[in-house]
């Protein structure tokens, strides 16, 4: 699961600066910063008419029951699921984040942890998007957790490196390779510490 992530400005990250500048120019005041919850509107980077653009998008596809949102798609089975297959082929998104949150599933107490990259200032969560009633909505692709996360949770988001953003968005074969590649090593600490 990846149910919450953090979108904050990171000084000195030129790609993130460009995303924020584009959002402020084209969609001022339409997105949230800080901790992003399901149902919130946040910046998403998508391919549109041969260009890579940042747009406001709502976290979660409408669910099958009232009020429920689908927030994640298993990368291992997304191509086989009617809800995700077309999006995986043609409507991929990345969600810039300074980190993401997860709760420890292996202990009775619910401790919230923040995961960040040990090597990247901004991480790019791989996702899928679709337009529902004129609104762009996204889900985050997940995969089995790597060694840096397994002690807290058995799933983690698929993460693209900065140089993988364009290939993930524009090339289905490259996207498949990014999804299948090893996940980066993450740093973990209790949230709020």
Structure description:
- The structure is a single chain.
- By secondary structure, the chain is an alpha+beta fold.
- The chain has one domain (4-190): SOS response associated peptidase-like (hypothetical protein yedk fold).
- Helix content is 19%, strand content 40%.
- The protein is built from four helices and 15 strands.
- A five-stranded antiparallel beta sheet has the order 2-1-9-10-15, with no helix packed on it. A five-stranded mixed β-barrel has the order 3-4-12-11-8. Strands 5-6 form a two-stranded antiparallel sheet.
- The longest helix has 13 residues, at 14-26.
- It is globular, with a radius of gyration of 16 Å.
- The protein starts with a strand and ends with a strand.
- The model has no long low-confidence stretch (mean pLDDT 92).
